[in-house]
Amino acid sequence: MKVALCQIDTTVGDFAGNSRKILEYAGRAAAANAELAVFPELAVCGYPPEDLLLSPGFLHAHDAALHELAANLPPGIDVLVGCVAENAAAGSRGGHPLHNAVALLQDGLVQIVARKSLLPTYDVFDESRYFEPWLTPETNIVRLHGKRIGIVICEDGWNDAHFWDKRIYAIDPVERVVRAGAQLVVNLSASPWSLGKDTFRHRMVAAAAVRHGVPMLYVNMVGGDVELQFDGGSLAVKSTGIACQPVMFAETLQVVETDEEWTEQPAPQPAEAMHHAAIVQGIRAYVRKFGFQKAVIGLSGGIDSALVATLAVDALGAANVAGIGMPSSYSSDHSVDDARRLAKNLGIDFHVLPIAPLQDAFANVLEPVFRGSKPGLAEENLQSRMRGSLLMAFANKFGHLVLTTGNKSECAVGYCTLYGDTNGALAPIADLWKTEVWALSRWLNRDGERIPPRSIEKAPSAELRPDQFDTDSLPPYPELDPVLRCIVEENMTVEQTAKRTGMARSKVAELFAKVQNAEFKRYQYPPTLKVSERCWSGRRMPVSHHYREQ
What we know:
Blueprint: E1 2-7, H1 15-31, E2 36-38, H2 56-72, E3 78-86, H3 90-93, E4 98-106, E5 109-115, E6 141-144, E7 147-153, H4 173-179, E8 184-189, H5 197-212, E9 216-220, E10 222-225, E11 228-231, E12 235-238, E13 241-242, E14 252-257, H6 271-289, E15 294-298, H7 303-316, E16 321-325, H8 333-346, E17 349-352, H9 356-370, H10 377-398, E18 400-402, H11 408-413, H12 434-444, H13 453-457, H14 477-489, H15 494-501, H16 505-517, H17 519-523
Parallel strand pairs: 1-2, 2-3, 7-8, 8-9, 15-16, 15-18, 16-17
Antiparallel strand pairs: 1-14, 3-4, 4-5, 6-7, 9-12, 10-11, 12-13
Helix pairs in contact: 1-2, 6-7, 6-12, 7-8, 7-12, 9-10, 14-15, 14-16, 15-16
C-alpha cells in the first residue's frame, strides 16, 4: 500500500487554515498515487489546544471543520487525521467528555477509528485535564486496501516494556493492536522536540518494528507553538531500516510503499545544527503567528545578544531585524564596536542610544531618597531597566517584538534584572546553557565570520560597574553549567551534585540556593523556546516556598 506521510505545521484554532493545508496535502498525496494520507495528532484544531477544549463554540467549529474536510477531499484517497471526539460514555459513567482521537475520512464520511489511551501529564503535558483515556486500544484497528492497520496516538507508542527500563503506564497500545491482528502500525503524533529526541524516537520505533515484525509509520507535527517546537522527523521503519530520510523542521510529504524493503539508516545531525533549526523555527513561528514581521534586540557587544540577533536574521531576514546599542558610562569602547561590527556582518539596522544622560537624570531624581547611601545593586539594575524601556519604546513605535537575550545559566541563578534585560516577547536562548551559546556561535561562524570573534572570546560582563565580570558573582561557566544541569535538569541533591561534578559542596550549596531563590524571576520570564528535556515551562516549582536543602 502506498501511504503519504503528511508532516504539516498547524495553528491552534485556525480551522480554516488547517483545513486548507490538510486538503492541499491530501491532493498532493492523491496526485502521487498514494492510497492513504496520514496527518499528525489533533491536526484539525492544532496542538496543544489546552483550555479551548472547554469551549462549546470551539468544539462546534472543530466538528464543522472535520465534516467539511471529509466532504471536500479529492477522490481516490483515504485520510487518517488527528481530531477531537466525544466520549459517549461520559454521560452515564462519568469521566472527561472528550477523547484525543483519529478520524478516517473516506467517501465524504467521518468515522472515528481510534482514541488515545496514554495521556501524558509530565513536563509540558496535561492531557488528562481534558481527555478520557481509551482503555481498549486493541479496538483501534481499521481495514484499508486489504491491510489491517493498527492506529496509536503519540504517547501510545512510548510504553514498550522491552524498550523502557521503567514504564509509567500499565498497558502498551502498540502491543495490543499487533496482538489484535494489525499488519501495519500508524502513529499520529504531536511530539515536541528536545536535543537528542529525534535519535531516541528512531531507536524506539525501530525497536517496536523489530519486536513486532510489522512496519511502523510515525507521522509527527512540525512547526512552533510558543515554547514548543515540533520537529517533524516522520519515520517509516521496518526491522531492516527506514524507507527514507526523516525531514526535520520543515513541512513535507513523503510517500512510502509498505510492501517494499526499507534499508536506509537515519543520518545524524550535529547538536548545533539542530539547536539552530529549532530556535530559528521558534522565532519565525512566534513572530508571524502573532501577526508581526519584525524583531528588535538590544546589542551589548556580548555573545548572547549577538547570537540572538544572528538567529533572528536567519528566521526573519535582515530587513526585519533591528539592533540597538545602549552604552552607559561604564561601557567599554569595544562593546559598541563589536555590536556595530555584528550589525554590519548581518546587514541589519543599528542604532546607538547612549543611556549616560538617563543615568544622570535618574540620579538627580532619586538623590533625595538615595542620599547618604553607597551606589550598588539598585543603580546597576536601573541601567538594565533604562535599556528595557528604550527597547520597548522602539518596539511600540515601529511594530517590532523585543527578543530577550538571556541564557539558561543566567536564568537558572537569577543573574538577570526583572523589567530590564528580561523584557521581551520571547526568550529564544533561555534554554541554552552558556557553554551551548558559545558552541552554537562558533558553529554559525563555520563558513566565515558572522559573529565577531571578540564577542565570542572576551570574558562575559554585564558592564554595570567598572571592571565588572560575570565571574565576580559566579564560577566560570564551564564549571557552572555541569552543576546547574544536575540541579535543574536532573533534580539532584547538593551532595549528589558535588560528587558528580567535583565542585566543593559549599559552592554547590550556594548555587542550589541561588536557583531556589530565583524562582520568582523565572515565573515572570518571557516564554522560552524549549530545546532541552527540562525547560522552564516543564519545571513546575512553587514560586513561593520555604524549603531549603540543608
